[in-house]
Amino acid sequence: MAQMSLITGNPSKYIQGVGAVKEIGKYTSVLGNKALVTGGRTALSVSQEAIGESFRAHKVEYVVERFRGESTRTEIDRLVNIGRENKVNVVIGVGGGKALDAAKVVSFYLETPLALVPTIAATDAACSAQAPIYTDEHAFEKLIIRPKNPDLVLVSTDIIAKAPVRFLVAGMGDAICTKFEAEACRKSSIINFHGGSAGESAFYLARWCTDTVLEYGVEAKKSAEQGVVDEVLEKVVEACVYASSVSFENCGLSLAHGYLIGFTGLKETQQYLHGEIVGFSTLAHIVLEEHPKEVMDKVFRFCYSVGLPVRLADIGLKDASRELLMKAIEDSRSKIEWLHNEPFPVTSEMLYEALITADRMGSELINRER
Ligand SMILES: [Zn+2]
Q: Could you tell me which CATH number the domain at 14-162 has?
């Protein structure tokens, strides 16, 4: 059999900087001349004026339709129909992970190019080709994989800096897992999301992603709290929005996102963000893999210092029964193979024990720091 090829995917263009959104007309006009712009209420309120102005300057017609908050089959069908009725030939998603995911799926069904404008840095969604669809009850249903990564990702760092800092912190939670999941996938020789193997540069970027957040995350949070865009914030936004997203697709996902899939289906976790849950799952991930003490200390301390969850209670699972946690683990196993992307067999019992140990270590850290 021929050796598996190295395959790397990227958005066609990634643009990040203060006021970047003002350039959207210029970069969209080469993709299409009739756009469906969709995003949440807040996301549209902070960007719609600049988008409209830029579209008018570059002769891109557009319709705006508010995204209703969940990337469910019902919502996707509604947006696809609006796109069809208006004969759009490019889709623009504006907002956080769910809005960007919905725009990806809508463009998949409409078979149009896709431009994404993240207005928060909360997840690893912006640069990837894939997006989940959820049931009307918020449980994970399936992944839709577009044949291409987004054609354009445009990040206005000034908008990111003005958003509530909780989102940036969640983005850090979603980014710290990157190198650990990538290394697990490398050791278990998985096929990446593009159907090939990851190259050395992909693993380098995954390491850069996690290490950058661990090193500069605390400082970046301070900048964001003051609404200041500086070099440190730009670097951490690049790690959370670009590197985290590209790396998971090129290198693969394992335990941290595997846990997430199960947790997503529990009503107890509904008020927590993707990146907050992944942040805690990362702790269980490194516990299960038995990383050296100094690595564990660094990651636990980092999570604690930026306000990411370090206990089950911090993601709504205080006093969660063994049955409930096992249910989440089994649910994930039945839906996705990521929990098996380790170079050794992983049992449900091991996954459960790692959650409990991470929770205990997090509680001990809090008690020590008090
Ligand atoms: Zn993620």
A: 3.40.50.1970
